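Sequence, please.
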């Protein structure tokens, strides 16, 4: 993708760091901050939920909720690359 092969899913801490608890809609806020195409939906992290192998952490970019969700449920992804 875009000439790179080192894309990955962010862990839950990385994804949650985008949330601003002072705004109602995270997607609208992030798009106004220079991001593009952020949707008000649930984004998967690479972090599995410790108490259940079928669950992983997700972040809702509508209201900023962080929650465990069943891995079989469809969701959005926000690919990131490793730093320099």
């Amino acid at each position: 993708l875009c000439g790179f092969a080192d894309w990955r899913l962010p862990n839950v801490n990385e994804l949650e760091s985008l949330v601003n608890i002072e705004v109602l809609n995270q997607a609208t806020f992030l798009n106004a901050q220079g991001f593009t195409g952020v949707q008000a939906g649930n984004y998967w992290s690479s972090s599995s939920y410790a108490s259940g192998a079928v669950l992983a952490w997700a972040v809702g970019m509508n209201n900023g909720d962080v929650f465990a969700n069943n891995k079989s449920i469809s969701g959005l992804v926000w690919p990131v690359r490793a730093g320099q």
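The two ends are 18 Å apart (CA to CA).
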